[in-house]
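Quick question, first post here. What does this chain look like in 3D?
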Amino acid sequence: IIATEAATMSSNGCASPGCTKIVEKRLACPKCMQLGLPPVYFCSQECFKCSYSQHKTIHTIAKQIAEASSSPAPGTHRKTPPDGITCPLDSPQSLKLSLPTWANNYSFTGELRPTLLSPKRSITNPKVRRPDYADHFAGVSESEQRDRASNNNIRVYGPDELEGECNLRYACAMGREVLDEGGKALKVGVTTDEIDRVVHEAAMERDCYPSPLNYYNFPKSVCTSVNEVICHGIPDYREVQDGDIVNIDVTTYSRGGYHGDLNETFCVGNVGSDGRHVVQTAFECLQAALAMVKPGTLYRDLGTTIHKVAAANKCSVVRTYCGHGIGSLFHTAPNVPHYHKNKAKGVMKEGHVFTVEPMINLGGPNDTTWGDNWTAVTTDGKWSAQFEHTVLVTKDGCEILTARENEPVMTWNPDLVQR
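> Answer (accepted):
Ran it through. Tokens below.
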């Protein structure tokens, strides 16, 4: 069944047995996408409904294969962190600082080591609107899955969606406030788990959902990426050390149903020259890219500019992760690669909203992922830094929706990232 449907999909025919119609709209089976199977397309909703009783056997087979292999079992996602990674807040310090189960005999690329995590934090404010993945057993955003299957267009946001209480501009402003609160709490000796607590509570105070929480089972409310961690670091009981660089990546989801996403890398205490160099280079890469944002700019051209700035500073650009469209969905079109000679599609138009978030390495561009299924690190163990903004394309340029107050244009000031 699987082989037959894959062949049908590749030939642009409807996957319904006996149907000879050409697929003109990409109507995919949502259950297949939820199970991580290649998307299967149908010519219409009616055709899908008529053939579903036969088609759903593929779901049963996929679950049986997952149960019989090392793949994630049904009810989880490939990004779901493994067991043996948490302990209560009142546990002995020796237990908190112990390695999670997956890290025993793990070959780390750098000096950083994980500790155990605190339990997942609860949504304590009844006013907070929960995105569709918040209560999904595997953290899957079914609205994003449907969007990927049926939509190739970049959304244009108008005044009704940008303005007003709890709309997109508000979500971005709240993200800025929450990141600022997390940044204020950062200092030598503070755990990244404490940063997670501060960010989580700041989001609750602003009637916002912390978007990372349970997104494909991510266990925390913020990403904290230290030293050689490129992105998606999970806050834990490790204390921040003098000389560390720490990225805090915040996304807030407003009661109006919009996400605002940004991050900054901070220098904690006495950071060495290499660490300061990569932090400033990452800032300048984003600064140069945002200067290009205006109607008519090709999305793929941002990567060339970022590459030139990074290369001039003898740094490299991570290729695995990219910027993305954002708004009513956490991640949507367009994809915004940060590297040279990428093949991103699309031209910027007034009303487009997206993130730019180049990840810049001191060493090579390659990355690998820890056994927690989330933490991306450099393969050579050298340090990485990142800055991110959500931007709106305007009539003659762009507006940084997540900018600091009274800072409409990015300006490098080392004091703002020093802790």
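Residues 1-11, 67-71 have pLDDT under 50 and may be disordered.
The longest strand covers residues 245-253.
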